[in-house]
């Protein structure tokens, strides 16, 4: 699974629960896997100064972001004994309650997947040029910043 | 030389555009930024990093004549 | 979600990818959640002395196991700021490649879900009286032991 | 007193049963185990923990007259 060219991690709009279920099903032929770990980022309806976030509009510097996702992927495969790794991130509008990030790692052993998943998610949050406009119910907005 | 400049996220509210090509005779990224600050005064007070050809660079980097991107804080995930 | 009576964590047979997808979908109305973390245990087709595991038959001391799952659940809610937690474990035959354990935690913030999920999975592995008979393709077997 | 004893996992291969009720006049869990080892010699060499009324107990615990379970190493997940 390593040394491939960067592929497109982005999906237009929210990531559906069916897509995630199908992705899990596809791994049931890989019988060396003993443990999967999945991270899902979901858009929160945060209340800020009395206004509620209704959606986030995601944009990205797509070429650089896909290159960064690829770097993170290669680093994780080098560092951890992973059988599989999949990353999907939304672009465009994702409503509160919908899923905008899906990271899926699999390994023969459980200890590995815990470490690997946290490594990958933290790297995505800090290294990938993705931008999020938090849109409130009254159509005003603010720009999201990862902490 | 001709440089393509890309703006993202909240920076596009200062520039009112996502991308532009400009002719520029300076040498360093920092010189290009001074030029952009003159054009878009609101940009000066924004927090951003600079990528040249998709790699983050310090502002004292030499311009290579290719793509420059101004990147506000990341918000992925 | 705390202080409930122990509920039955066990499901007969494998846990399907559709069940997992549906469980994810049910959380999309909970808009205070920002991060989900899911652990899936999958039966490995381990090769042992030239024979390959084709399935695990799970049994449990069910009442004690459900009480232990409940204790783990209460401890996790006390320790971590979780919005939701769900645990499902198989009983009976689960074939290689199928899923036997599904642990699902959700929180407003991501740091919490990583810590909580690992805590819960490690506790399940070490504290819950579940037993696994690894059945080989020739119908011989050995008894699984967690490490 | 009458005690219900439950066996799990590989222990059932030594006992050939999952559950039985026996009349027993001893006081400690360890005495009950000695009795079971006489009945099922193969059990003596197995690795297991003992639960009384669904709580793990040391073998020098007093029998309360309720449910005893012999639990081999766990294999959940």
From TrEMBL, chains A, C:
EC identifiers of the protein: 2.8.1.12
InterPro entries: MoaE_sf, Mopterin_biosynth_MoaE
SUPFAM superfamilies: Molybdopterin synthase subunit MoaE
Biological processes, Gene Ontology terms: Mo-molybdopterin cofactor biosynthetic process
GO MF term (any one): molybdopterin synthase activity
Catalysed conversion reaction: 2 [molybdopterin-synthase sulfur-carrier protein]-C-terminal-Gly-aminoethanethioate + cyclic pyranopterin phosphate + H2O = molybdopterin + 2 [molybdopterin-synthase sulfur-carrier protein]-C-terminal Gly-Gly + 2 H(+)
Pathway membership, UniProt: Cofactor biosynthesis; molybdopterin biosynthesis
Top-rank lineage group of the source organism: Bacteria
Top-level class of the enzyme under EC nomenclature: transferase
Keywords annotated in UniProt: Molybdenum cofactor biosynthesis
Protein's UniProt keywords contain Protein biosynthesis: no
Keyword presence, Nuclease: no
Database matches in PANTHER family: MOLYBDOPTERIN SYNTHASE RELATED
Homology family: Belongs to the MoaE family.
Subunit structure: Heterotetramer of 2 MoaD subunits and 2 MoaE subunits. Also stable as homodimer. The enzyme changes between these two forms during catalysis.
Protein name as annotated: Molybdopterin synthase catalytic subunit
Source species of the chain: Snuella sedimenti
Automatic annotation (TrEMBL), chains B, D:
Stretches of the chain forming a coiled coil according to its record: none
CDD domains, sorted: Ubl_MoaD (cd00754)
UniProt cross-references to Pfam families, sorted A to Z: ThiS
Protein name: MoaD/ThiS family protein
Organism: Snuella sedimenti
Source organism phylogeny: Bacteria, Pseudomonadati, Bacteroidota, Flavobacteriia, Flavobacteriales
């Amino acid at each position: 699974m390593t040394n491939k060219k960067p592929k497109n991690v982005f999906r237009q709009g929210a990531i559906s629960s069916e897509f995630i279920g199908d992705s899990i099903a596809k791994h049931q032929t890989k019988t060396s896997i003993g443990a999967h770990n999945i991270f899902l980022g979901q858009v929160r309806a945060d209340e800020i100064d009395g206004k509620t976030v209704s959606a986030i509009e995601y944009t990205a510097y797509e070429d650089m972001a896909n290159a960064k996702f690829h770097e993170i992927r290669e680093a994780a495969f080098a560092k951890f004994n992973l059988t599989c790794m999949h990353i999907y991130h939304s672009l465009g509008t994702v409503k509160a309650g919908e899923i905008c990030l899906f990271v899926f790692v699999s390994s023969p052993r459980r200890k590995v997947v815990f470490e690997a998943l946290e490594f990958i998610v933290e790297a995505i949050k800090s290294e990938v040029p993705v931008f999020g406009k938090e849109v409130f119910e009254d159509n005003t907005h603010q720009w999201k910043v990862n902490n | 030389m001709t440089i393509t400049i890309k703006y993202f996220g909240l920076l596009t509210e200062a520039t009112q555009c996502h991308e532009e090509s400009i002719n520029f005779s300076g040498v360093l990224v920092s010189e290009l930024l001074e030029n952009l600050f003159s054009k878009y005064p609101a940009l000066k007070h924004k927090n951003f990093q600079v990528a040249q050809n998709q790699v983050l660079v310090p502002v004292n980097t030499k311009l290579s004549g290719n793509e420059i991107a101004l990147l506000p804080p990341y918000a992925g995930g």
